[in-house]
Amino acid sequence: MNDDSQRSDPPSLPARRGLRSSRKPRYLQVADELRDELKRGDHPVGGMLPTEAQLCERFGISRYTAREALRTLEEMGLIARRRGSGTKVRSAEPQVRYNQYVRSIDDLLQYTQATRFQLRHSDRLLADATLAGWLDVRAGTECVLLHGIRYQRRMLKPFCITDVYRRASMQGLPPGFARVEDAMRALIEGELFARVGLVEQSLSAVALDAEQADQLEVEPGTPALRTLRRYFDPKSRILLVAVTLHPGDVFSYITRYERSDVMRGV
């Protein structure tokens, strides 16, 4: 019995109805075509999308490729899939939203795994009183700033501005880099999970200024959630400080608290 998940698609891409020629992976080609159809209203909200078998026949693809295409649309918030019930259309436009459920440091750090960071620029600056307080350094200490945008994986619309600060020192950073900036980027893109022992966090509400709104593709004055996180290593030394801005309508922050002295039998 053949395992459909191991089937490979034909190497060439024949011209089939509804499938555009592209260098993209085939599942993304299919996802793009279906997304265009959803936007045009070919599949009304509340209705059902064609089955995996129907997509395989239409596009000449394997079940695995069809599933990946549908998963892409599901991650965009366009469809909802339920085993045995088919695929229901939820929206005609991608829903850029990120819900973070936090009960531990591991949960908190999953944020960096579930999103994609795009560096816009880096800079060297002298710490003012505020930054010095965040980093526990003297005012005037040379620091490094990485400024970038975060995207939910497979999404093109930005949902978070991120500014990462650190004292201009290699101490505590991954080895093998000539510049602090490069070591910082390696840390936030992959090695932060293994190096953090403590995280301090504060949340506040702000309004986005014109420059911030332009980067997030929203209107100036849009309400936003500002998050300040201080990351420490297991010896309580500061690794870095991250300040993020999320438009209020695309980010939910959910925590769960449990009592340590719960009385049984009450």
From TrEMBL:
SMART domains (alphabetical): HTH_GNTR (SM00345), UTRA (SM00866)
Q: Which Gene3D superfamilies match?
A: Chorismate lyase-like, Winged helix-like DNA-binding domain superfamily/Winged helix DNA-binding domain
UniProt domain HTH gntR-type: residue ranges = 24-92
What InterPro entries does the record tag this protein with? Bact_HTH_transcr_reg, Chorismate_lyase_/UTRA_dom_sf, Tscrpt_reg_HTH_GntR, UTRA, WH-like_DNA-bd_sf, WH_DNA-bd_sf
Ranges annotated as biased composition (Basic residues): 17-26
Q: Which UniProt keywords apply?
A: DNA-binding, Transcription, Transcription regulation
Give me the ranges of the annotated region Disordered. Answer: 1-26
- Which Pfam families does the annotation name? GntR (PF00392), UTRA (PF07702)
Q: Which domain of life is it from?
A: Bacteria
PROSITE patterns from the UniProt entry: HTH_GNTR
Coiled-coil spans in chain? none
Q: Specify the protein name.
A: GntR family transcriptional regulator
Q: Which organism is it from?
A: Tahibacter harae
